Amino acid sequence: MKKVLIVEDDPQISELLRITLKEIFFEGKIINDGLEALKELEKNEYDLILLDLMIPSMDGVELCRAIRAKNILTPVIMITARTEEIDKVLGLETGADDYVTKPFSVRELQARVKSLMRRINAPNASTRKEKKQLSFEGLKIDLDKRMVYKENQEVVLTNKEFDLLQVLASKPGKSFNRQSLLQLVWGYDFEGLEHTVNSHINRIRSKIEDDMGNPTYIQTSWGYGYRFNENI
Known about the structure:
By secondary structure, the protein is α/β, with parallel strands linked by helices. The protein has nine helices and twelve strands.
């Protein structure tokens, strides 16, 4: 069974989450405190994190930011009772892979988890038929291992950062608008959250570009979106 860390301070909800995930073969551990959850993730590996936004000691946004800062790449689904767009944006921009708003249906949550795990564990099928590796001047993207190397040094990307880079690098020269990148990378429509793409692009650039002001790999299509440089 896969392992899921459930970070939720409501006992009834956390137990519901544990039972719901057990039905799709996840063994759940429940922690009701943000700092304790961070300590647990530093010691043990998990396949998934379910993270409530409002938890003691360190809220969900702070915890997600701390998790990614420590290069813990475990997929995160944020669970929140809030519905404001700003909360969704904050969650996604700090490294969450998806979000579910309370009250949620058991079947919807299970479907979201299955979809997320499929996207992470299976590189784009059409790309895999063509290539298992994308190579550019100074940059190599291993699609099967989901690893990136800059000048033969590993670059650590989150799952969404890797997916976004893969989409762009698989079609050098093609410009993608932000809404289409949200659809391709996050799997469904996050209407109004195009700024999330900008944040992820900036983080990728900070890791692979020598000059953020004059990027070599990910270039801006002004007034439209982004494209991967076809001349390298």
